[in-house]
Amino acid sequence: MVQIPLLERLEILADAAKYDASCASSGSVKRNSVGGKGLGSTDRGMGICHAYAPDGRCISLLKLLLTNHCVFDCHYCINRKSSNVKRARFTPQEVADLTLTFYRRNYIEGLFLSSGIIKDASHTMELLIETARILREDNDFRGYIHLKTIPEAESELVARAGLYADRVSINVELPTDAGLKRLAPDKNRVQIEGAMGDLGRAIVEAKDARKRFRHAPRFAPAGQSTQMIVGADGANDSDIIKRASGLYGTHNLRRVYYSSFSPIPDASAVLPLKRPPLIREHRLYQSDWLMRFYGYNAGEIAQAADDDGNLPLDIDPKLAWALKFRERFPVDVNRSAREDLLRVPGLGVRGVNQIIAARRQRGLRLDDVAKLTVSVTKIRPFICTVDWRPSLLTDRADLRKLLSRPEKQLELFA
């Protein structure tokens, strides 16, 4: 069997990893300075993606698969066993060497590693763990490691991954049982959630042990996350948000990522012919943010959806909710509770905190609030200040049209 050159394998397996949304990649057109013309290149940066830390720092990660061989036949996956794609494979030592080389050249700050299933789930999990072990124990690697774990693997192996990785994740793949059975027949929801529950308990136990014993080993200190595919099955946005809310509550996840279904070559006949609009994915992330930081529950976000259960695409879910529950407005910025201020469209968490701090000193005027938001036009119908009351503006029948931005195609050379 002819061995594929390392650079070609890197290109294949980095491209195969792009469908995982657990770290946000940036894309660009392919340009390079081969031939001595120009400076820099975007063509040879295979496998490098950008993720963001909680404090806003942009972190570069080497993102790739250990292999794109797979014994599973998930319809939506380009690496499924029935797919006609070029296959490649790394050894754990090769991935470790690539990570160290990229790190020493200051290309990356860590590794994001996933894999197709070869032989069986436990064998693949052992290879992923061995990669992380080589980095941590043999090379004393202190950088960031994110491992995609395999729920079908033995629970002891999944638990071992957390001893080497900063973050671990298990994809639930699809929001409904029906969708999972139809599009991923080799996967089982009970098995997936069981593995997530085991990881969650191990993370909690490790944190408790660290409080009592200074030298207790760390276990996935950055927590666990998961990913759901949007638009591959018939699940609407309400279904997805309720599923995400349940996962946050049951397994104490750090993040749920949403990935718009992307049509793949030689796709199965059971899949949609085109991808959902990307703005739908964006609206789901906004809804996720509302649950995590603004005090909304899944049921309230579902109330903001249209009759088909999907969130409106022309306005954000916070505004959609406010328009449906206008009796909750206007909110007096000088007297209302923090929970009510967080419901005002256009006001963020930081802006609300600044309002609460400032109103202790004096009564706030509309100009004062305008300095804390991107668009004062958006918040005017929903607030009262010392010098402003919206009067009949809040109840206008055409308020949605006034506040929704008309769609406009951007032009490079206007």
TrEMBL record:
UniProtKB keywords: Iron, Iron-sulfur, Metal-binding, S-adenosyl-L-methionine
Superkingdom of origin: Bacteria
InterPro entries: Aldolase_TIM (IPR013785), DNA_rSAM_put (IPR023874), Elp3/MiaA/NifB-like_rSAM (IPR006638), Endo/Exo/Phosphatase_dom_1 (IPR051675), rSAM (IPR007197), rSAM_sf (IPR058240), RuvA_2-like (IPR010994)
Keyword Zinc-finger recorded: no
One example GO MF annotation: catalytic activity
Cofactor(s) the protein needs: [4Fe-4S] cluster
Gene3D superfamilies for this protein: Aldolase class I (3.20.20.70)
UniProt cross-references to SUPFAM superfamilies, sorted A to Z: Radical SAM enzymes, RuvA domain 2-like
Pfam family of the protein (one): Radical_SAM
Sequence ranges assigned to domain Radical SAM core in this UniProt record: 54-297
Identification of the protein by name: Putative DNA modification/repair radical SAM protein
UniProt xrefs under PROSITE patterns: RADICAL_SAM
Origin species: Altericroceibacterium endophyticum
Keyword 4Fe-4S attributed: no
